[in-house]
């Protein structure tokens, strides 16, 4: 979950100590760890991926030039990166989505291709060029003309980035094939990526874009990319020739954490629990919750109601009423501000209106933090008001025992029995929403595919 905003350190009058010199690779490494939840320790998975990297390096266009080393990032979002230093990063969310060794190899080969093809440097050059042109247009011509030029340059950079993706796809497919892997793994993973995005859209509707940065932001899985990846693979071999090593891959990721890091907050159905900050609350009936680094978001599937929970360190206002009225909420109705008690915690509620939306707001104080719950509805009916207030009143502190007992989800690999079906295996899934759809997604099964007795499958368990 989000980290509370921290005020800047006090001024001491002394000049700051000079920073220690770090190379760019070390700085980028720390930035990635900070942005994506730190490093996740999974030795079996790391060793397995590093062995794949050795094969990819030997099969690349520049064998021996770099020694690649994988770092697994502790986040459920699906993403991967490679740095010119040879550091390669995959998230545990990506490990859960990939179905076999060839798919994991395809992702890593794609990221390595971005490095070997100098895409980062070329894109930076394009962006600098765009900035110079837009600045010149703003100075020489009108402000409106400058905005038009900026828009054109943004489109130019975006188009260039799409071509980079296609080039990296083609290079990656060729490299994994030379390394002995199934070249169709790239197309399968791109297909899974698209299905993952569609499932998120079905669950969270218009709010999905604000719920976390994942690989779809910069690597969109379009039909064009899938078809081109298949086309490149067909030029190499027929399907079923290269190594997939599904069994070895599943054994390597068995037990890897799935979903939210429990110490950073996790969702179970409509309930959100944060063991480290020691609180929990439950959303109204029909809401789907998702945790992110910024806040907890929720939507009702009709898309006419939403909620957000975040926290800030207590800004030391004279009172909670003064804080609510300090201007951080637009359209506040001052007469609606009311002081209440929420399970022994001081709180205030209020109503705000902005455009067609109505907001029921609650600010709850617990220790040094203020927790801000905002419920939004097109129409704040008596029923909606009742449900929102009932949800606010579920907010409470966790006991030390409850905080210690918090546990997350993990990937478990099981063998299908003779009588098993997709539905029977999905029934073992512990996911916040739609276990059947997630079971099919994680195992690369479309709606027409069934279970094969003796085959191994991924499920999510506690």
UniProtKB/TrEMBL annotation:
Keywords: Hydrolase, Metal-binding, Metalloprotease, Protease, Zinc. Residues 46-229 form the Peptidase M48 domain. GO terms for molecular function: metal ion binding; metalloendopeptidase activity. InterPro entries: Mito/Outer_Membr_Metalloprot, Peptidase_M48. Residues 1-19 have a biased composition (Pro residues). One of its GO terms (cellular component) is membrane. One of its GO terms (biological process) is proteolysis involved in protein catabolic process. The keyword Metal-binding applies. It comes from the Bacteria. Residues 1-24 are annotated as: Disordered. Its cofactor is Zn(2+). PANTHER family: METALLOENDOPEPTIDASE OMA1 (PTHR22726), METALLOENDOPEPTIDASE OMA1, MITOCHONDRIAL (PTHR22726:SF1). This is M48 family metalloprotease. It comes from Methylocystis parvus.
